[in-house]
Write a structure and sequence with these properties.
about 350 residues; alpha/beta; Rossmann fold; two-stranded antiparallel ribbon; about 50% helix
Amino acid sequence: MTPSTLQRFLENVLQHDLRMSLMIWGPPGIGKSSIVAEVAAARELDLVDVRLSQLAPTDLRGLPVPRDDDRSATWYAPDFLPREGQGVLFLDEVNMAAPTVQGIAQQLILDRKVGSYTLPDGWYIWAAGNRKEDRAAVFDMPAPVANRFIHLDVAPDLESFRRYALREGLHEHIQAFLSFRPELLFNMSPDHPAWPSPRSWEMASWLYSTGEPALDLATAIGEGPAGEFYAYLDIYDDLPDFEKILAEDEGTVVFPEEPSKRYAITTGLSVRAENAEQALRGFVWMGANAPDEFTQLYAQNVLPRLRQQGEMGRFIERAQGNGTVERLQRAISAVVAHL
C-alpha cells in the first residue's frame, strides 16, 4: 500500500469508528508517523506518540506503590498515557522495543489496560515498526500480539510524495528532479548514513531553499543523489518563460524534447499556477504542445494545489468545454477521486 492509500485507510477506520488495533509496517523515512499525526489532527483527535524502543518495562506499566491498609500494592501508571477524551495512542517502534517491554505492551494492545491503568473508550490503538529487511534492530513480534493487529504494509510512492511536496511547498527543483529520477525517492544505502528517502528529501529541500551553497545536500541524501541533483540544475537555464505561458502570452514557446527538461517545465508550471485561471492556461498550453503523459503529470501536480487553495470549483467551472480537459477527462477524474 502507498502512503496515500494508508491515509485513506486510516480515515475510513475513524469514519466507521473501528477500534481494532492497527500495525503499520514499512521502511524508515517514508512518512508513517506523520500520516498518523495528520489523520488524527484532521479529525481533531488527540495524539499520544509513545516510542516503545525508548522505554523500560516500568515506564509503561508504572511503579508499584504499597497500600496503607493491607499488604497489597497498586500500580501508578505513567502520566503520558491518556486518562480522558478521544484520540490515538500511537505505539511507534514497537518491534525495536526489548521483548520485556513488548510483553507489557501486549496487555495494553490486547486488553486495552496494563497494571492498574485502563485506556479510555474514546481512544484507538495504532502502532508502527520497521521490518528486518529494512536493516532495523528489531525483535520478532510474538504471535499472540501479531494476531490481534490489522497489518498494513506501506512502501514509498512518488505520487504520494509529490502530493505531500506540493502541499508543504518543497522546492520546485527537487520535485522536478524526483519526477525525472523517481528511483531516487527511496534508495537505502547499507554503506552510508545519509541516503535518499521522503524524509531526507524534505530535509534536503530545507537546506536547498536557504540558497546557501555551504549547506550541501549530500549531508541529507548522500553524495551520489546530491551529485545527480546538482547536475540536473543546469537545465533550468534553458527552460521557457513560465510566466509567459501562464499569462497567455506564450508566443512561440515550445515544449522541449530533452526528457529532463520536460519534467522540469511540467513541474515548474504546476508549482507556479497560483489560481484556477492560470492552471487552466497551463492545461491549454500543455494540451497544445506536450504529449498526453506530461499533461496528465501536470494534472496530478496542479489539481491537489487547487483543492488546497479552494480553487477547484472555479477551475471546474472555467474548464467546461475546454478540449484539453475533455480529452483527458478520465485521467483528471482519477486524480480528483483521490484528493
